[in-house]
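Board notes (copied after class):
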Amino acid sequence: MQLNQLKSNPGSRHRKIRVGRGIGSSKGKTAGRGGKGQTARTGVRINGFEGGQTPIHRRLPKRGFNNHSREEYATINLQAIQKAIDSGTLDGKKDIDLAALKAAGLVRKNAEQVKLLAKGALKAKVTISVNLASESAKAAVEKAGGKVVASR
């Protein structure tokens, strides 16, 4: 087979409808846009406008609120830390803190606070500095011979 012999599958390509080419084409005059006015123009259509009827976002009741004092924590599990130490992306001999977790790719670059959770097992003896840690995570790290320094 040659490049000049390649063809697309039958029915996979449709001809473009040429609008505004006379009344016999069934897409002449208004080119399928209906009458005149705002909806016949390009780029101007009011989102959420329902023809004068009260829009749905005003008919439905408000619910809930946004807590502006909420603190976001990036969560990290013990099994992820152990896996990173085994693969060599985290150094188990140094203290593990937010900067080390970011460098290893275990938390996002924009993370500001970290919470340690106890999913999985930790075999390495490490010192972990985080903002929050669950009681079971602290117990698991101390059982492995390590230490958790929680700032809260």
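Comment from the instructor: Helices lie at 56-59, 78-87, 98-104, 135-143. Residues 78-87 form the longest helix (10 residues).
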